[in-house]
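FYI - complex with flavin-adenine dinucleotide, inputs then prediction.
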Amino acid sequence: MIRVVVVGGGIAGLATAWYLTRRAPPDLDLSVRVVEEERDPGGKARSVADDGVVLERGPLAFLGHVPDSHALLDGIGLAGRTIAAAPSAARRLVLHEGRLRPLPSSPRALLTSDLLSWRARLRLLREPFVGRAKEHDESVAAFFSRRLGEEVVPALVEPFVTGIWAGDPARLSVLGALPRLALLEREHGSLTRGALAAWRARRRRGAGVAAPALRSFPGGMGELPRAIADDLGDALLRGCRAATLARDGSGYAVEVEGARTETLRADALVLATPVDAARALLDPVDPDLGATLRTLPHAGVAVVVATWPSDRVRHPLDAFGFTCRRAEDRRILGAIFHSSVFPEHAPDGTALLRATLGGVRAPRLLDRSDEDLTATAVRELRDILGIDGDPTRTTVMRHPRGMPQYDRGHLGRLAAIDGKLREHPNLFLTGAAYRGTSVDDCIRNGRKTASHVLRQVLGEATRAGEGRGERGRGP
Ligand SMILES: Cc1cc2nc3c(=O)[nH]c(=O)nc-3n(C[C@H](O)[C@H](O)[C@H](O)COP(=O)(O)OP(=O)(O)OC[C@H]3O[C@@H](n4cnc5c(N)ncnc54)[C@H](O)[C@@H]3O)c2cc1C
């Protein structure tokens, strides 16, 4: 029997385990165990429904239609259960000079947006004629400044990057954080030409030209890990923490404590935990690999969720939400209008809002108490959205070091990690810290990790003379 242990039952670990069980050749005697510290799987992707309100701990939505996510949803019987975000969620706002204004969502809107001076708008027209990058690993700020002009960075890029990464465009690597844009430039020499080519290709395929809607589930994103966990059954060890790791022949021995105390032997081991936990486990096995993981930067965020009766909110909340430019000098990074995006997640007449604090911009804010963070978020939401009175409920969710930052040098750091992993052919790392942070990225990379694991274990089985030919190699 070939034993694979996955440590971490967040989206990445669950997707890896699910694809392992589904893609393994039927004649492979494979045992998969997922060790998850918490009783409730999902990691950051967990939801609590209370009094008709869905509280999301982390992600609010995903795309779901991308191939690996769709195959997973189909396989666990959730494909027909997704709900689409309201059309108004396509509108994103930015707090600009004290007022909420729409972020341009098309080239035409960009050219007419009053978020940019006329000079900056004229500069946009030069984009198709700007040369390719000379520097290999450019920051997001440098990339946009070079292609679209300096003014777009504080006006548009910084709010966008804050909304997704809680990061700093001057530090984030365009290759690491926005690889598709870097590819557009490389392949087409210009974002405009690349976007046009992509638009034409979509039309040729008969696909709609509008961006696909974000999706969730009636009970929130937590339905996804719960359904994967149900499908995995006994393979998931809930409430079990991987406490220590040791080499065991060509594999590993994982000491588990919590709901069960035992030693799991693994022919192949997947670490799908946040980097700090992976590092702590790996330090005794390979301190150099542990040290390399330590080089991956992270930011922490806190999410303050608050509800008010809708008639107390003067703003129509007809958008996904807003982000605050750094120049606005606000404590919150922005807020999502959760009850507008997914009206199913709040009772009629309730405005459910979700403000984010911290990030690279204000890391020290996370040292403050929950009461302090709540008071700050409530004060600023009331001011920006014109809300009267106190919220009817508030909740704080913290994610210290919860947002990986793909800063400049990220690809080099990944190459160093891959180099170290070559010394450990039966060890695999997956999750948000490496090659994509979104839920869809974690599922895609979980599927890829499962393929790598199967290739490795099947190769070993073949070398051990178990008669597994080329036909059985990899999914
Ligand atoms: C506030 C916030 C909002 C977000 N919004 C979105 C969004 O709207 N859309 C989107 O696509 N993405 C969003 N993201 C990103 C996305 O949610 C995460 O990147 C993704 O869920 C991370 O999944 P993961 O499996 O890599 O890690 P985690 O979810 O962190 O899972 C790791 C798991 O490992 C377990 N673990 C750790 N140590 C051990 C151990 N020693 N033994 C056993 N188990 C262990 C943990 O308990 C946890 O369950 C958001 C993230 C945050 C923080």
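Residues 439-463 form the longest helix (25 residues). Confidence is low (pLDDT under 50) at residues 466-475.
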